[in-house]
Design goal:
The protein has about 375 residues and is of the alpha+beta class. About 20% of the residues lie in helices and about 30% in strands. The mean pLDDT is about 95. This is Molybdopterin molybdenumtransferase.
Length: about 375
C-alpha cells in the first residue's frame, strides 16, 4: 500500500506517448498546442476605426464632410486638412486621418461638421499590427486552447493547428450482481451506475471514449475482455473486481495480460483498493466497485494522467475554509464530498463509499487527516 502523496508522484512520473495531429481550430477546444504558433500577418491588418464616428484630418473648428467609409469598403478616400469622412467601426481609415471622433461628440449641418470635444492625435484609431506583428510568436507549445484562442487563430486566417490528440479511454464493468437500468431487478441484484458515471465524467474532458464493455465475474472472461480492450485504448478503466473477494479476478487477469503494477492500494478513504498499472505505453486503472470510491479515484488519480496525455499540467487543489468543526475518526486520511460556496466548505451527510447522493449534491472533494479539525481551518479541495 502507498500513501496518497506517493500515488500522485508515481502517476506524475509516467511519460505517456503524445500523438500530434492537425485539426481545425474549432475542433481544438480543450486541447493543447503541440507546436508554436507564429503569426502569418499583422493584426489589425490595416489602420481602422475603433468606433462609429468621423475620421478627421488636422485640427479645425469645423470640418467639411467629403465622403463615407463603411466596414469592408475598398474606398481610396484621402483627407486633406479640415476635411472629414463618416466612418464605421472596423472600417479602414482614409489616408490623412489624424484621429476619429465618436459621433456622439459631433454636430452635423449638411456637409459641415463641428465638434463638442477635441480628440487627441490618433484617438480611436486601431493601428496596423498594434496587437500582433507578422512573424511574432502568438502561442507557445503547450498553450491551452479556449474559446478566445480559437477566435485568435481564425482572425489570423489559420485553419489548421498542431495539437496533442485526445487519449482513447475504454471502460470495463465487472460484477454479476449488476443490471442495466430499465431492466427488472432480480433477487440480490442492483442497477449498474459506475459505467454511466465514468462516461459522464469523461465527457467533461477532451478524450475519446471507445466504449463501455461488461464482463461476468470469472477469470477467463475478465482476462479476455482486458486483452481485447487493451488493443484499442491508451487508458483502460476497470470498475470493480479489484478487491480480495472470491469473485474478484481483475488483478490476476491484469497479470495474465502483462500489465505491470505501479501501485496497488492507497492509504485513504474511500478508494483504498485502487490499482494503477501499465503495459508498454498503455495504462490501466482498476477502480473500486463502490460508486463513491470509483468517482473519487477517478477525479484524483485518472484526470492527472489524462492531462499528461494532452500536454497540460494536472490541476492543483485550492485552499478553502472548513465551515464547521469536524472529526475524522479512524486512522486513514479521508476525502469527503463537500459543498463549497464563497470559499467555505460544508461536509455533506452520508459519506459511505456506496453512496452517490452526497457526490451529486457537492462540488468538491476535501481532504482531512485523522483527528479533530476546527471551523475556519484551511483545507485542500479538488473541484469536480
Amino acid at each position: 500500500m502507498v500513501s496518497i502523496e506517493e500515488a500522485f508522484e508515481r502517476i506524475a512520473k509516467q511519460r505517456p506517448v503524445r500523438v500530434k495531429q492537425h485539426v481545425h481550430p474549432s475542433e481544438a477546444v480543450g486541447l493543447h498546442l503541440a507546436d508554436v504558433v507564429v503569426s502569418p500577418m499583422d493584426i489589425p491588418v490595416f489602420d481602422n476605426s475603433a468606433m462609429d464616428g468621423y475620421a478627421l484630418c488636422g485640427e479645425s473648428d469645423t470640418y467639411r464632410i467629403i465622403g463615407e467609409v463603411a466596414a469592408g469598403s475598398q474606398s481610396e478616400l484621402t483627407l486633406a486638412p479640415g476635411q472629414a469622412a463618416r466612418i464605421f467601426t472596423g472600417a479602414r481609415v482614409p489616408k490623412g486621418t489624424t484621429a476619429v471622433i465618436m459621433q456622439e461628440k459631433t454636430l452635423v449641418e449638411g456637409h459641415a461638421l463641428s465638434l463638442t470635444e477635441i480628440p487627441a492625435a490618433g484617438a480611436n484609431v486601431r493601428i496596423k499590427g498594434e496587437e500582433i506583428r507578422q512573424g511574432q510568436e502568438v502561442f507557445q507549445a503547450g498553450h491551452y486552447i479556449n474559446a478566445a484562442t480559437v477566435g485568435m487563430l481564425l482572425s489570423l486566417g489559420i485553419t489548421s493547428v498542431s495539437v496533442f490528440a485526445r487519449p482513447r479511454v475504454g471502460i470495463l464493468i465487472t460484477g454479476n450482481e449488476l443490471v442495466t437500468a430499465g431492466e427488472q431487478l432480480g433477487e440480490g441484484q442492483i442497477y449498474e451506475s459506475n459505467g454511466g458515471s465514468l462516461q459522464a465524467a469523461l465527457q467533461q474532458l477532451p478524450v475519446e471514449v471507445t466504449g463501455v464493455a461488461r464482463v461476468t465475474d470469472d477469470l477467463e472472461s475478465t482476462s479476455s475482455a482486458i486483452r481485447d480492450l487493451l488493443g484499442e485504448v491508451d487508458i483502460l478503466l476497470i470498475s470493480g473486481g479489484i478487491s480480495v473477494g472470491d469473485y474478484d479476478f481483475v488483478k490476476e487477469a491484469l497479470a495474465q495480460n502483462e500489465v505491470e503494477e505501479v501501485f496497488y492500494k492507497v492509504d485513504q478513504k474511500p478508494g483504498k483498493p485502487l490499482f494503477f498499472g501499465k503495459r508498454k505505453h498503455q495504462f490501466v486503472y482498476a477502480l473500486p466497485g463502490n460508486p463513491a470510491s470509483s468517482l473519487t479515484c477517478f477525479y484524483l488519480y485518472v484526470t492527472p494522467l489524462i492531462h499528461q496525455f494532452l500536454g497540460g499540467a494536472a490541476k492543483v487543489p485550492e485552499r478553502v475554509g472548513l465551515g464547521h468543526d469536524f472529526e475524522v475518526r479512524g486512522v486513514r486520511p479521508t476525502f469527503y464530498r463537500a459543498k463549497v460556496e464563497e470559499g467555505v466548505a460544508t461536509i455533506l451527510d452520508k459519506q459511505s463509499s456506496s453512496m452517490l447522493h452526497s457526490f451529486a449534491l457537492g462540488n468538491g472533494l476535501v481532504f482531512l487527516s485523522p483527528g479533530i479539525h476546527n471551523k475556519g481551518v484551511e483545507i485542500p479541495v479538488w473541484y469536480y
